[in-house]
Design a protein that fits this description.
mainly alpha; single chain; two-stranded parallel ribbon; rod-shaped
């Protein structure tokens, strides 16, 4: 029995098959834990930039919060706020679930800035210029983290 086992292990065909299986397993691990999460991260990064560009007009022109009727009639502001919050939540989820690929500390401020942008679509007691400047600063900070050309 031992002779047969030693003969099988020393056979070139067996070693070729074994090395092929090991290479396949390692490549699948690399794909699942490095390549796929990185691809997902880059895709969501593109969606964030797309969202910022799409809602740039809303971000630059916040509405007065006191005028609730106008806010309810203007669905674009509600949609923008909801979508920016949603994409921030998705990005936070990616950062938490793929710690090996995504440097959480570097991108943690992106999720906070997106939530602040979502909240800054309404003017409370501050002036429109204050909100506009803060929104511009938040948007540029997000783009800086992603190494995207800024306004």
């Amino acid at each position: 029995m031992d002779n047969i086992l030693i003969k099988i292990i020393s056979d070139n065909t067996f070693l070729t098959i074994l090395s092929g299986v090991i290479v396949f397993i390692i490549s699948q691990l690399i794909f699942e834990f490095i390549i796929k999460p990185r691809e997902e991260f880059n895709k969501l990064k593109g969606e964030i930039i797309c969202c910022l560009t799409m809602y740039d007009n809303v971000i630059a022109n916040p509405l007065k919060y006191n005028d609730i009727k106008k806010v309810r009639e203007n669905k674009e502001y509600l949609d923008a706020s909801k979508n920016i919050r949603l994409i921030s939540s998705r990005f936070a989820g990616i950062l938490e679930s793929h710690k090996f690929v995504c440097r959480k500390k570097k991108y943690y401020s992106v999720t906070n800035n997106l939530i602040r942008l979502s909240n800054n679509l309404w003017i409370d007691k501050r002036s429109k210029d204050d909100i506009y400047n803060e929104n511009l600063k938040l948007e540029n900070e997000i783009k800086r983290k992603f190494k995207i050309k800024q306004n």
